[in-house]
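Renewal narrative, Specific Aim 1. Our central claim is that a sequence can be written position by position from structural information alone. The example that follows is taken directly from our test logs and has not been curated for this report. It begins with the C-alpha cells describing the chain, in the order in which they were read.
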C-alpha cells in the first residue's frame, strides 16, 4: 500500500512538471513576440589568425672589405641606387701594393734566369753532340763525354726548377692582384644602399672575416612581410593562404593583400616566448612601405562561402543541444518547433550551421519575459553540453 502511494506521488509530480513545460513553451506560443530570435542567413564564414608583423627587404646583403687598410674614397650614400659590380668605396692597402711589387720583381728575375738557362742548355747540347762524335773517333775520353752529358741534363733540371718557381711566383702575383682588386668595394646585387657604416679616412681590418661597410637591399618595389605567429596558431598556417595587412599611413589605415609564400619552422624567442615567421611578398610599387614598418596581419586559415550562418554571439544563447548534432528551437509563425541542427566552421564572427534548417528561419535565443532583457532562457530539454 505504501509503495502504491509513492508511485502515485511520483506520477503526479511528473505530470505537474510536464504541464509546466507545456504551458511555458507551447501554450504561450501564440505570443511570438515574447522570444528573442536570430535569423538564419547565407554568408561567408572566415576564421583568421591575427597579430603583428614587420616589413623587410626581399634580399639584404652586407658589403664590406676583404682586406685591411684605410678608406680613401666613398662613392655612395644611404638611399642611392646601385647596380651589381658598382664600386661603393676604395680601401687603400700599402701592404697589398708592396706585395704586388715584390712578386712582379721576382717574376721578372725568374724570367731573366730562364733565358740564361735556355742559352746554357743550347750550349751544353752542342757540346754534348760534339763530344759524342769525338768519343766515337777516340779523340775524347769517356770521362769527358760523361761530364758533357751531366752538364746538359743538369741544365735541363735547372730549367725545370726555374719553371716551378715561376709557377709559384705567378700564383703569388695572382693573389696579390686579387688583394689589390679587393681594395675596390663593389655591390654584389642590384638594389639600394640601405645603410653606411664607415667614413672617409677610417681604418678597416678584415682579419678572418669581411669588415662590414654597407647594407645593400633589393629594390623596394617588393618587400617581404614577416608575420609573427604564436606556436599554437602556427600549425594552422599553410603556404598559399590569403593574408591581409593593415598599415597605419599618413592617409589612415591602408590594407595590403597577398598570400603566404613561406613558413619558417625555426622559432624566434620574443620575451622568452617562441614565435614563428610566415612570409608574404607585398607589392610596393609606390614605395609607400619602408623596411622596419609594422602592420597588423589577418591570415585566413579556413573559409566557407555562401553557407547558412548565425552570429557567434547568438550561438552562445541559442537553444542548441549536445554539441554538433543538437537541436534548436525554431519559431514558425506562432508555433515553436524543435529542429535538428549541426554546427560547422566556427569563424571569428559567424558560425556555419546545417541540418533541418533553411535560410530565413528564426532560431530562438531566449525569452524576453524570462530573466529580463536579452538574456537567453535555457530549454528544459537542453543538455549540459553546449554547442561548439
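The sequence written for that structure reads:
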Amino acid at each position: 500500500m505504501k509503495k502504491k502511494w509513492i508511485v502515485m506521488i511520483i506520477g503526479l509530480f511528473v505530470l505537474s512538471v510536464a504541464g509546466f513545460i507545456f504551458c511555458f513553451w507551447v501554450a504561450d506560443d501564440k505570443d511570438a513576440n515574447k522570444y528573442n530570435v536570430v535569423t538564419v542567413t547565407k554568408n561567408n564564414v572566415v576564421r583568421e589568425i591575427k597579430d603583428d608583423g614587420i616589413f623587410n627587404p626581399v634580399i639584404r646583403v652586407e658589403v664590406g672589405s676583404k682586406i685591411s687598410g684605410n678608406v680613401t674614397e666613398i662613392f655612395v650614400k644611404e638611399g642611392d641606387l646601385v647596380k651589381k659590380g658598382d664600386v661603393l668605396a676604395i680601401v687603400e692597402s700599402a701592404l697589398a701594393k708592396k706585395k704586388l711589387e715584390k712578386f712582379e720583381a721576382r717574376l721578372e728575375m725568374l724570367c731573366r734566369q730562364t733565358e740564361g738557362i735556355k742559352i746554357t742548355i743550347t750550349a751544353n747540347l752542342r757540346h754534348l753532340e760534339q763530344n759524342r762524335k769525338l768519343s766515337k773517333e777516340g779523340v775524347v775520353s769517356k770521362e769527358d763525354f760523361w761530364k758533357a752529358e751531366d752538364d746538359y741534363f743538369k741544365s735541363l733540371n735547372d730549367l725545370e726548377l726555374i719553371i716551378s718557381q715561376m709557377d709559384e711566383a705567378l700564383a703569388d702575383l695572382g693573389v696579390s692582384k686579387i688583394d689589390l682588386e679587393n681594395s675596390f668595394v663593389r655591390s654584389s646585387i642590384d638594389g639600394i644602399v640601405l645603410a653606411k657604416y664607415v667614413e672617409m679616412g677610417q681604418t678597416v681590418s678584415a682579419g678572418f672575416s669581411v669588415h662590414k661597410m654597407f647594407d645593400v637591399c633589393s629594390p623596394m618595389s617588393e618587400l617581404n612581410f614577416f608575420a609573427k605567429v604564436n606556436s599554437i596558431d602556427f600549425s594552422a598556417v599553410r603556404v598559399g593562404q590569403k593574408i591581409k595587412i593593415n598599415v597605419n599611413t599618413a592617409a589612415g589605415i591602408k590594407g595590403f593583400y597577398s598570400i603566404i609564400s613561406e613558413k619558417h619552422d625555426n622559432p624566434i624567442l620574443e620575451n622568452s616566448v617562441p614565435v614563428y615567421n610566415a612570409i608574404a611578398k607585398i607589392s610596393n610599387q609606390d614605395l609607400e612601405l619602408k623596411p622596419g614598418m609594422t602592420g597588423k596581419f589577418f591570415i585566413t586559415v579556413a573559409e566557407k562561402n555562401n553557407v547558412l550562418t548565425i552570429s557567434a554571439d547568438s550561438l552562445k544563447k541559442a537553444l542548441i543541444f549536445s554539441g554538433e548534432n543538437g537541436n534548436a528551437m525554431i519559431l514558425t509563425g506562432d508555433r515553436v518547433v524543435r529542429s535538428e541542427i549541426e554546427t560547422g566552421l566556427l569563424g571569428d564572427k559567424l558560425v556555419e550551421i546545417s541540418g533541418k534548417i533553411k535560410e530565413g528561419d528564426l532560431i530562438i535565443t531566449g525569452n524576453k519575459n524570462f530573466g529580463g532583457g536579452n538574456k537567453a532562457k535555457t530549454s528544459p530539454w537542453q543538455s549540459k553540453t553546449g554547442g561548439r
